[in-house]
Amino acid sequence: MNGLLGALLFILLAPLLGGLVAGVDRILTARMQGRVGPPLLQPFYDVGKLFEKENVVVTTAQNFYVLAYLAFIVVSGALFFAGGDLLLVIFAFTLAHVFLVLGAYSVHSPYSHIGAERELIQIMAYEPMIILAAVGLYMVTGSFFTGEIAASTVPVILYLPGVFLGFLTVLTIKLRKSPFDISTSHHAHQEIVKGITTEFSGATLGQIEIAHWYENIFLLGFIYLFFGFNPVLGIAAIAITYFAEIFLDNTTARLRWQAALQSGWAAAAILGILNLAIIGYIMGGA
Amino acid sequence: METLLFLILFPAVIAVGMLLANQKKVRFAMVTAAAVVIAAASVLLLAVYGMQDLILFAIPSEPVSRILVIIELGLAAYIAYLGLRFRNYLAIALIAVQTALIVAFEFLYAGDLHPVNNLFIDQFSVIMALIIGIIGSLIAVYALRYMETYHTEHPEVRNRQRFFFFVIFLFIAAMFGLVFSNNLQWIFFFWEVTTISSFLLIGYSETDEATRNAFRALTMNLLGGIAFAAALIYLAAVDPAGRILELDQLLASGEAIALIPAVLIGFAGITKAALMPFSTWLLGAMVAPTPVSALLHSSTMVKAGVYILVRFAPVYAGTLAGVSIAMVGAVTFLVASAIAISQSDAKSVLAYSTVANLGLIAACAGVGTPMLVWAAILLIIFHAISKSLLFLSVGTVEQRIHSRDIEDMEGLIVRMPKMAVMMFIGIAGMFLAPFGMLISKWAAIEGFVQAPYGLAFVAILAYGGAVTVFFWAKWMGKLVTVARYRTVVEDGFRQERWVPLYTLTTLVAATVLLFPLISSTLIEPYVFSIYGTTARLSQANIAIMALMLFLLLILPISFLLFRKSAKHLPPYMSGRTTTPDMQFLGSMGVAREMTTRNYYLTAYFGEKRLLPVGTALCTGLVLASWLLAGVAA
Amino acid sequence: MAFLKRSPWLLHYDASSCNGCDIEVLACLTPLYDVERFGIINTGNPKHADILVITGGINELNRDIVRNIYEQMPEPKVVVAVGICATSGGIFRECYNIVGGVDKVIPVDVYVPGCAARPESIIDGIVTALGILEEKRRTMADRTHAKEEIRKGAEAGS
């Protein structure tokens, strides 16, 4: 029952919260650049506008893939907040992104094709670390279920500092922020025109934006799992982490895809595996 | 027991019949009828024995064993003859060593050996029999039309279809024999028959390349055969009464006795499953006609290799030798998946993915905890279904577009919509939630987390899984690219083609829904009977996966929503005006065509770069497994 | 609702400008003018854009491109010609390769004069364009509505 409530709250509130987070993001970004920035509700205006625009497509099929992307992002997030199995959440998440990639492939456009390939490279770059994070959480709390992990009284972050740092590295990829925004990026940034979203416009682009809000809330929820023992600390960690990501976004230049792949894999190998090996040794020994 | 004997003997009889059937019509009728009978018999097997644990059948072994040895010697002579004819002296040397071992076994020990229970059946055998019986028959039916077209398109290849189907049915008989035999000597015999079937079918086109690859497959498998024969001699020397030659007795005899033969036979399994360092033979085997690749080199014969590893999993469990065999599998999984990224030939991608998944199964078997054995059997089932579908699809597409390069499959969704949807489902079956392979990988992760030395495997699985997403998704992307100008080239295939494809596609989706049932009636009782405990996924997760599948099935309805709306515009080309077939004027007014090509990242994942690494690592690990087994014993 | 006015994304195309106006367009994005205050974003993709900002006169080589970009923008959309060259061809008007102002190729909604146009006037031009954009949105919505009515009527009739 609790799980169902969590899922329902996520489905209803995540777009609101995600849009607000995006608004704060844009204001903070503007302030870091010495500008005033747009109103807080700007992301909602943008999406509202996109739904007012004419529907223009290269092929009808592209709308289907984006709808599937949105649907499975919602499913994976809802599953996460319902306290579901973390690995299943990650797999549903991958499925969602594969749909987005297929949408970009379906249009037979040079720009979205490059974006699609790069999106796949991103998936390849972040997935090992995310799986290791799930495994790490399991090793410390004894459960793959997010409900139980969040309710665990173990100070997870003390056991998994390396995994947490590794997760932050791939979080940059996932939030589509510099230096790893290689497949497509936020608002004003451009990358090989607009990467994976080049051929999407109007309501379809609006759906991608909403999916991105859902996704961000889910990812911020993931950070909370490391601090489940102390909710206040958890909220603070989310705020600080997100601020750090915005800061990084504004202080770094975009790197090449090779760097994204190497960073993601190195984070998993050095921060992730090493941390887990030490934990495994300590826990096995104790 | 009659069903068992029928399943072994009936395909063999049909095989002889195929040699005699000199008319196309007769062949078509015979193959179709035989396929229906074999599939029905394997379902009957499920009905009769599916609900029961291990049943042993006592069959007098002496006369049968004698006949088998005579056939074996005959086959050895045949191989030696072929080796001489094609001047492949390595093959002759290996077959000589193996024959010497068999002869030594016969003269020194065989007289005193009296294994009693020569045949057996349990749930695992039922599963294997279903795979062989159903998928094997479907592929045989598919092969009918395929081979007709093959010979029209390749007039230079000698038409030996009678021989082709003879070997196919012989092979099916041998596979049944292999999974029903309890006597290791018999398993060895059937093992050798599958090796030779594979050898003959790879060399079917009789080109230089085919012959070379056939001999490579043969020599590598003979190496495994020699290890198998050595294990037989070891066992006969340990227990002169020969009861230990019975698989169930051997498995029950404990690590001290069973570990060395388990590692030797495991080595044979590694060669047959084409794990590194032996993966090259499977890649070379892709020169064979595509139904052969589907039947032998992805869904059944290579599964014999991992079948035997999974059988010995309880012996490997908890031993360092087992961990090192598991590591061979895990390294193979990672390296082969990575190399698959750099391949653009569809069959090479399928072959590398097969090698990778067999590696994963071996990794599960080597560590051998209940959860992992459960996952390994799931992997065997799901991989057989999805991969045979993909091979048959690629074969069909190749005969229509005359290429099996993935780049040439661009826009297949427009050109061959039905085919593209089936391939799409097949590929989804290989790596996406909620389909089978992903369920199994997930179970494997959960299994490894709890296993000793599990972290190394989890790490490898995390990377390997990510790499897998890349190479499958970019292939899917090529399929779904909507390129308007292509004409539809799908029609004109006969029904014999479509029936196996439709059936397999349905199976891929149906197994997602049926898997809790398969798990609870077949896999869990098997795991329970061995370990006394069992494993499964939680009910809640299964419900969620069913929900996801449902969502996937209803999402295409949304196409109706999009139909009426939308203005169509050409893709963004930096302002250049393009024709619908993507022609545009480049600089200096030169007409150009826009083409896209996938990333292959050869600098990172090229065969040249990774294969030596994998080979070296796995060779070391294989040697380590022997050393560790020796030390432990 | 009128979200369109609050979130105009613009696409800037340099037809054959001397770069004077381009610099001024970019100046609008800098902290001093900060057009993102109005939700304005400079996109690089016509399929995401609402306002097409063109600097410089149209020449023989880029007339097809300007038309193509314009056609790729989804409705409702407006065109702002920035600088005297874009409005009429300016001092290059008589050149052998210059066609003239942007309105020789595509319909222009707002003309921003100046050589180079000042950021203040560019912003003023774009704000004017927002009004036209809103008007176009309303007509588009009405038209869709009317079409829908006709379709429904036809369905009911048949």
UniProtKB/TrEMBL annotation, chain A:
Keywords: Membrane, Transmembrane, Transmembrane helix
Membrane-topology annotation of the record: Multi-pass membrane protein
InterPro entries: ComplexI_Subunit1, NADH_UbQ_OxRdtase_su1/FPO
Entry's transmembrane regions: 6-24, 63-82, 88-108, 129-150, 156-173, 217-244, 264-284
Compartments where located: Membrane
Family matches, as Pfam families: NADHdh
Superkingdom of this protein's organism: Archaea
One GO location term (cellular component): plasma membrane
Name of the protein described by the UniProt record: Ech hydrogenase subunit EchB
UniProtKB/TrEMBL annotation, chain B:
One GO CC term, this protein: membrane
Cellular location(s): Membrane
NADH-Ubiquinone oxidoreductase (complex I) chain 5 N-terminal domain segment(s): 108-149
Pfam families attached to this UniProt entry: Proton_antipo_M, Proton_antipo_N
The keyword Transmembrane helix appears for this protein: yes
Transmembrane segments: 6-21, 28-51, 63-82, 89-111, 123-143, 163-180, 186-205, 217-238, 250-271, 278-296, 316-342, 349-368, 374-398, 419-439, 451-477, 498-522, 542-562, 610-629
Limits of the NADH:quinone oxidoreductase/Mrp antiporter transmembrane domain: 181-459
Taxonomy, superkingdom: Archaea
Membrane topology, as annotated: Multi-pass membrane protein
Predominant localisation class: membrane
Keywords: Membrane, Transmembrane, Transmembrane helix
Protein name as it appears in the record: NADH dehydrogenase
Source taxonomy: Archaea, Methanobacteriati, Methanobacteriota, Stenosarchaea group, Methanomicrobia
UniProtKB/TrEMBL annotation, chain C:
Gene3D superfamilies, alphabetized: 3.40.50.12280
Domain NADH:ubiquinone oxidoreductase-like 20kDa subunit: 18-128
UniProt keyword terms in alphabetical order: 4Fe-4S, Iron, Iron-sulfur, Metal-binding, Ubiquinone
GO molecular function terms attached to this record: 4 iron, 4 sulfur cluster binding; metal ion binding
InterPro entries: Complex_I_20kDa-like, NADH_UbQ_OxRdtase-like_20kDa
Cofactors required: [4Fe-4S] cluster
Family, as annotated: Belongs to the complex I 20 kDa subunit family.
UniProt name for this protein: NADH:ubiquinone oxidoreductase
Taxonomic lineage: Archaea, Methanobacteriati, Methanobacteriota, Stenosarchaea group, Methanomicrobia
